[in-house]
């Protein structure tokens, strides 16, 4: 059985960056009472924030 390959150098910063960006997106939406990050999205800003964070979490199983 072969040993798993190491991830590229950029993998971990992108993974954690997406998780943090999603969290910051949601926090920004709540703190500014919907004025930011994208006012025209309205409540969908929550979905965008969770979507970004979920992309980061989906990267975790491949992290070595």
Low-confidence stretches: none
Total domains, how many? Answer: 1
Order of helices and strands: HH
Radius of gyration: 15 Å
Helix content: 55-70%
Q: What structural category characterises the helix and strand content?
A: mainly alpha
Q: Count the strands?
A: 0
Shape: elongated
Provide mean pLDDT, rounded: 94
**Number of distinct helices:** 2
Q: What is the distance, rounded to the nearest whole angstrom, between the alpha carbons of the first and last residues?
A: 16 Å
Strand content: under 5%
Main β-sheet: number of strands, strand sense, barrel status? none
Subcellular location: Cell membrane
GO biological process, one term: cell division
Main location: membrane
Protein name: Cell division protein CrgA
Characterization of this structure:
- There is one protein chain.
- The chain is mainly alpha-helical.
- The protein has one domain (11-62).
- Helices cover 58% and strands 0% of the residues.
- It has helices at residues 11-31, 44-59.
- The longest helix has 21 residues, at 11-31.
- It is elongated and about 55 Å long.
- The model has no long low-confidence stretch (mean pLDDT 94).
């Amino acid at each position: 059985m072969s040993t798993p390959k190491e991830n590229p150098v950029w993998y971990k910063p992108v993974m954690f960056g997406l998780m943090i960006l999603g969290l910051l997106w949601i926090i920004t939406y709540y703190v500014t009472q919907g004025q930011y990050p994208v006012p025209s999205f309205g409540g969908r800003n929550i979905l965008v924030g969770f979507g970004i964070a979920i992309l980061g979490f989906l990267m975790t199983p491949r992290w070595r």
